[in-house]
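Let us work through a complete example step by step.
Step 1: write down the sequence.
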Amino acid sequence: MATTLRPPRPDSSFRKWLQHALACVCTALTLALPVTATAADEAPTPADRRSVTTPDDGEADLVLMNRHVVRFRSSLLGSPAAQRAERGKHNLDVILARNEDDTVKVQSNPMGNIVLVGDQLAFILTHDDVDRLSGETLDSLTHRTLGALRQVIVETRESRDSEAMARGAGAAAGATAVALILALVLTRLHRGLGTRLVSTIDRKAEQLKLGGTELIRRDRILAAVGWLMSASYWLLMLLLGYAWLGFVLARFPFTRAWGEQLNGYLLGIVLDMGKGILTTLPNLLIAAIMFLLARGVVGLLKPLFDHVSSGEPGIGWLDRDTVEPTRKITNILIWIFALVMAYPYLPGAHTEAFKGMSVLIGLMVSLGASSIVGQGASGLILMYSRTLRTGEYVRIGEHEGTIVAISLFTTRLRTGRGAEITLPNAMIVGNATRNYSRTVSGEGFMVDTTVTIGYDTPWRQVEAMLIQAAARTPGILASPTPRVYQTVLSDYYPEYCLVAQALPTGPLPRAEVISRLHANIQDVFNEHGVQIMSPHYMADPATDKVVPRERWHTPPARPADE
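Step 2: predict the structure and record it as tokens.
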């Protein structure tokens, strides 16, 4: 066997010229004459021509048993690459048709390397067949070609071995049976899991009700779960069929190349996914460390915020009223900082998709941030300026009630008549706020009411009657003493404003106190024969507009003791 891949170095220029000339003549005679003295030269059949592919102009592939052997990239002694591939295919068919020596040999030649099977010429590899752009050499091309050719010879002999073909058919039949069993198992598992999930969703759907109303519609959940299960089932069936097809094709010599391609493609996807996961693990570890540090900082600050929110003395500007918004803002800033630091280490952070998503998020924030930022800034102003506090009774514009919650964007008031009002913080900052709880001494809140009485009633009498009505009202404190102010001297009557402090807290007690105070004012004024009416003065009425005591409990009204 000749294994030298490089031609020997000549001793003189004449010897070199003579060697080249002899080599060209021998090669021309070999290509022109039949492969053997007993084999007639035949033109390539249609099947032979189908085994020759031309990927590019001037190039041709030699394919045997559906397996790529070599690519010819140049012509040789006037024969183009396609003709060289056809000739090589014909030579190998003739050689393999004889059950003779299958030893693959290489003989070096000034033009290239001559590939022999036994003692017969298969084809010639030249220096122009080398892919120089990929750094290939003639030796590496020859080595790879010999490996492919040996495999083709082995598979050709195997295709003519009835015992080997029977073993392949048996393996294919066994794989088919296993695939059918697995498909049956997957089908039954799919049906069983579907039935169990439907029953589970029915049980859970009864629990996801609020006031008899479903929070999440049962049919939507069933549709989503059914779609996910069907997608998973068909994906597994597709993978099973793909694996079965690759295995069966690889059992037979003629289709083995196709089976190896299918298996290699699937294995390549798995390897690429695994390689991608392994490559991103260090970056994911760094990102995880960033998030763990953020979580640790949040955990360190939690005892401080809990200490202040439990009613303990505050720390500087941080007190019970500002601890919750401060906690939320601090946590948000910490997590945003962690996300910014970990962003470069996230998988796909430098891809165009991530960049496009970042631009989209920035555009959305820019378009909608004006009102959101304004509301948030107003909420922070209310919280940290301590203009309002939870539990205080206030009047904002035309709305009056007890503050039940102050958030970053809205403030909620609860009235004594069972209504809850949500006000935007920007509106509260832009309006005057009257606080009835901030100026009291001790517990409770301030109450006030206004009446208009004509100038013909002595103002001292009016003040005394208002104070007497306040003294009769349960819940109004005697100390500090209720006071009456004449706020306006109108054209036809002065306005009297009664201001007192009440002890109960909360929206409902305040509404009850105000209602009882108004009732007592009417009773006291009726007792003293003073009219509570403020029309534009035209003339005195024929009779005084008062209700005598004997008519206070006209049916269906009844005295309190009854």
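Step 3: interpret the result. The chain has five domains: 13-159, 162-254, 291-364, 365-438, 440-537+545-552.
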